[in-house]
Fold this protein.
Amino acid sequence: MLNEKYAAIAKKLAESFPQSVVLCNEPMKAHTTFRIGGPADIYVEPDYSDITGILRFLKEEDVPFTVIGNGSNLLVSDAGIEGVVVALGKKSGEITVSGDTIVVGAGALLSTVANAAADAGLTGLEFASGIPGTLGGAVYMNAGAYGGEIKDVLESVTVLTADLKEQVLNPEELDLSYRHSALMEKGGYVTQVVLKLQPGDKTEIKAKIDEIRSQRVAKQPLNFPSAGSTFKRPEGYFAGKLIDDAGLRGYSVGGAQVSEKHCGFVINKDNATAADVLKLMHNVDDIVFNKFGVHLTPEVRIIGRDIN
């Protein structure tokens, strides 16, 4: 049951921003690739034109809010999320190609943007074609795969700062490094991204995308819900190899399991809870550290009520 304050907030949001989707007590397991997570008090999918207005409204009303993308790198608490979840998705993912530049709303899926680039005969984004997140989330964590990273093709980013002022930042100002951007420390929300690519051969670009997707299918446990790579790559090591060498291939806690196909992934094999995943991650880190003296740092973003 939604309390009176949040019920009133949901009503105001729906009335003030009719182009946006507003849901109450919405289970987050329906909005994460892990298929795990309790309810958000209020869940909003904003139209692109409403993003700034919605965030400023929530700040003025002193309502806690969490901004997410496609939910592909998230583990949400079983107790859900306090306040409002603002999910930048299809309604905030417009793509415009002009010459060798692509201007993209933060909610666009990386795969969709990579396909748009390929259709325009632009190369440089093929590496991102198999990453299951949004472009905004990819900038936030400088996502990468198959030898490429977002910073390699980034020209500028429009963000709302922590105090909700709009700024345009270049890659240097974002301090992009391995799975890191300055937004992680300073706060802020990506709303639009400008990518700079290179002209290429459409046939070759699409062949590269097909090759990357085939590799993902062959090597990753895509038949089970997961949040992608669970741990960051420790310097000088590979997390999946450390976990495998520690004898943890197939290791389970409740419904959560270290994938037998790729030890860098924790999968939701059988109705796993967030508590199952957290305990498994903690145990894996302990065992790997005891065997090899290397700690594993989560790559997955862990959010929600009662997260310690």
In short: The longest helix spans residues 274-292. The chain has a mean pLDDT of 95.
